Amino acid sequence: MMMQPTKRNGKRRVKKTNVKRCYCEGHCPDGQQNGTCEIRSGGVCFTSVEAVYDDIQDKDVPFYTFGCLPDDERGLMQCKGHLVPHEQSKSIQCCNEKDECNKFLRPTYPERPTPETPGFGSADSLPFTVLLTTVTFCLTLVLLVVAIVYVKNRRKEMQRKFGLYGKGYATEKYPKMEVHGPLTNLIEQSSGSGSGLPILVQRTISKQIQMIHSVGKGRYGEVWLAKWRGTKVAVKVFFTTEEQSWFRETEIYQTVLMRHENILGFIAADIKGTGSWTQMLLITDYHEFGSLHDYLQDHCLDPTSLLLMSQSIASGLSHLHTEIFGTKGKPAIAHRDIKSKNILVKRNGECCIADFGLAVKYLSDTKEIDVPPNVRSGTRRYMAPELLDKSMNVHNFDAHKMADMYAFALVLWEMGMRCVTGDKLKIAEEYAVPYYDCAPSDPSFEDMQLVVCVKKIRPQIPLRWESEEVLQALAKVMQECWHPNPDVRLTALRVKKTLSKLDTDTTIKIV
């Protein structure tokens, strides 16, 4: 409050005037920045607040204004209401009890009304709904067309790569081909080519296949029992995600001189389907006893049967690993997934090797192997130590062959455990997979690495094997083949020759 001097009866008096200072910000006189302004009797200090939308915070934030409200301007503002007239709602608070009393006033601003959203069925929302539906339909249609074109082109690419001609190709480029006679005769007649039946014959056979029922499902597809002109065949239908496995297996089977009595007999490969659906088929010989894994669970072996099976697997693996030179030669091939589930039992007591989806070929003329980028491919339980500890040189073809020999040793152990010994009381262990007693049922890569590489565990060989010559010989072969050093393992050819020297009864028994 300011005091003004006056004179009365010759004396100086101080006259009181009712003047106060208000804090001002955003409403200061003469355009000055934050400071103070004065009010006289009847005026008040005020603080106003309004909601201002902040783009960064994406919400309304309060914006305060401070200043003086002279008495002659109070008609434009109500201290407990809002500015009049004003489109934006503002909350006002006033005071005049002391200087700058408004500096700490913080009125709350009224919430901005939320506009009503039109309902789904209202007139305002109908155009948007129609537009959204139309755009969605058109986008779905475009994606469907793109998918159909992609699948068609992909199938044509596969057909070109493997010579599997599309629909109508044979009638356009070649005269109509009739396939006569039983399947065995066709295979015998075409064996001179060394790589299976002619492509057009394969396609004809695949069209005439009659599916009967599913006999098993694996990592890459489902196997069906089927018939072609009364002959039982096996049809492996690959999952659509296993395109590369179908590529590789078809390519391996069509290798020159691949046919062998201990390699699963290849008949045909084909791609069926429409523009939006593709089915990749592999047709092979059918063996009713199924895989060695399944067979050993229900059957025991005698030493003669065990030796015959072991010799046949070694013979098939030796043929696979061996390069045959000549015009109609055969490259060396490593299987890379040897296990009892990938070996089939034939009616004559022998075995044959199947499933070449991970196999690699060695091209001696260029000294190259087509190794997939994933060096861990295969079944973890049967992986060699050098695969588990990542010390294997994947560009060395002999390393892949030695990894096969390690896995082969585990298969020999599986068969040996089911071989009976004893003259009167026939003894054999229950079927078990390798490392059943020290690894989980579905072991991880780390689980097998700990068992095989760190602890250096190998399957136990029962003492009862010492009483049987065949089991004694197999035990020695196994131990040399699962040696931690790949360089000292036996080759498939050496194992084949070793087993062929054993003198046993040649009578075949399937117990």
Description:
The chain is an alpha+beta fold and 511 residues long. It folds into three domains: 17-95, Ribbon (CD59); 146-286, Phosphorylase Kinase, domain 1 (2-Layer Sandwich); 290-511, Orthogonal Bundle (Transferase(Phosphotransferase), domain 1), CATH 1.10.510.10. It is built from twelve helices and 18 strands. It has helices spanning 126-162, 169-173, 183-190, 199-207, 243-253, 292-298, 303-321, 385-388, 397-417, 445-454, 469-481, 492-500, and strands at 2-8, 11-17, 20-24, 26-27, 35-39, 44-54, 59-69, 90-95, 210-217, 221-228, 231-238, 266-274, 277-285, 332-334, 343-345, 351-353, 360-363, 368-369. It has a five-stranded antiparallel β-sheet with strand order 9-10-11-13-12. A four-stranded mixed β-sheet has the order 4-7-6-8, with no helix packed on it. Strands 14-17-18 form a three-stranded antiparallel β-sheet. Strand 17 (360-363) and strand 18 (368-369) form a beta hairpin. Helix 7 packs antiparallel against helix 9, helix 7 (303-321) packs antiparallel against helix 12 (492-500) and helix 9 runs antiparallel to helix 11 (469-481). It is elongated and about 130 Å long.
